[in-house]
Amino acid sequence: MSDTLVSVEHLTKFYGDHLAVDGVTFGVRTGEMVSIVGPSGAGKTTALRIVAGLLEPTSGSVTIGGVRVTGPPPDVAVVFQDYSRSLLPWLTVLGNVTLPLRAKGLSRTAARTAALDALAAVGLDGTARRRPRELSGGMQQRVAIARALAYRPKLLVMDEPFASVDAQTRMDLEDLILPLRQEYAVTIMLVTHDIDEAVYLSDRIVVLSPAPSTVLRVIDVDLPLPRSQTATKELPGFARLRHEVLDLVRARTD
Ligand SMILES: Nc1ncnc2c1ncn2[C@@H]1O[C@H](COP(=O)(O)OP(=O)(O)OP(=O)(O)O)[C@@H](O)[C@H]1O
Q: What is the predicted ipTM?
């Protein structure tokens, strides 16, 4: 747990004249789940896209496993909020999950086995032959998560992955991700607006200031594992952490 997988160093991003990110530095250790929170427009998505190699920083650097990111790295998978745009509607569920595996060089049989395992792991047995549009929003997001995990990434980057589903489904997806982290031995970076979600899921939380964003604080979440939507959220430690993060995020937006 102690070695650093992701190093974000002095990251700065201008959009034209607009300074969005101003010298953001933090690290993510192997096996950790780290959330990035901050007020709207703080540059959370910008920072995450730079980590995933989807956007170039103006200055500063990101390294993953000691290798500098200059484009989408082969061992990083991404899950976005908008599952309806990330899944290919003309492919079956199985086709969607196997596509990146085939591109990675897995044989048809190996890709199919990995995809079916991942679909089972997210509770989607029996959906392989269906099309994304035949599934509910929560199920489609599970397909996107299965696709990311089947790929066996070192790092899973998620931008508001649970924001487009109802509250109950959101909790189900949060509880799905927690054990899958261990099962797939994956390090996770998550952007979320939801402070309860950040505290519930994370090992550490990076709190960004409003744009131009800097790191206000990195908070250790010392809540016991396994976590539970009821028991964990009733702990005094949960309330204390929630309070601390909320104060930081809100103080700067008033
Ligand atoms: N492509 C772009 N061109 C110009 N400005 C942009 C672009 N993308 C983002 N910005 C600006 O950069 C700042 C940071 O945006 P970003 O989306 O990274 O923030 P965020 O914290 O993820 O926001 P939110 O919480 O609202 O999703 C904002 O002021 C935004 O308007």
A: 0.96
Structure tokens, 246: 């909320």
Residue 176: in which H helix or E strand, if any? helix 167-183
pTM equals 0.94
**Ligand 1 centroid, distance to 47 Cα (angstroms):** 10
* Mean pLDDT, residues 1-25 taken together: 93
Is the C-beta atom of 183 inside 6 A of ligand 1? no
Based on DSSP, count helices (H) and strands (E) in the chain, helices before strands.
8, 10
Contact of 119 with 93, CB cutoff 8 Å = yes
Structural contact between residues 88 and 99, judged by C-beta atoms closer than 8 angstroms: yes
Respond yes or no on whether the N-terminal peptide bond of residue 57 is cis (omega within 30° of 0). Answer: no
Closest CA to 180 of 79, 101, 58, 98: 79
Look at the block and give the residue holding tokens 């089972």.
Answer: 120
Q: What is the DSSP string of 141-161?
A: HHHHHHHHHHT--SEEEEEST
Which segments within the chain are labelled E, that is strand? 4-15, 18-29, 33-37, 59-64, 67-68, 76-80, 155-159, 187-191, 204-208, 215-220
Query: Which H or E run contains 51?
Result: helix 44-51
Place of tokens 């005094």: 236
Supply φ then ψ for residue 216, to 5 degrees: -75, -45
- Measured in Å, residue 233 CA sits from the centre of ligand 1 at 31
- Please give the number of the atom of ligand 1 that sits closest to the Cα of 159: 22
Summarised one tens digit per residue, pLDDT across range 178-219 is 998 888 899 999 999 999 999 999 999 999 999 999 999 999
DSSP class of 209: P
- Specify the pairing of strand 215-220 against strand 204-208: antiparallel
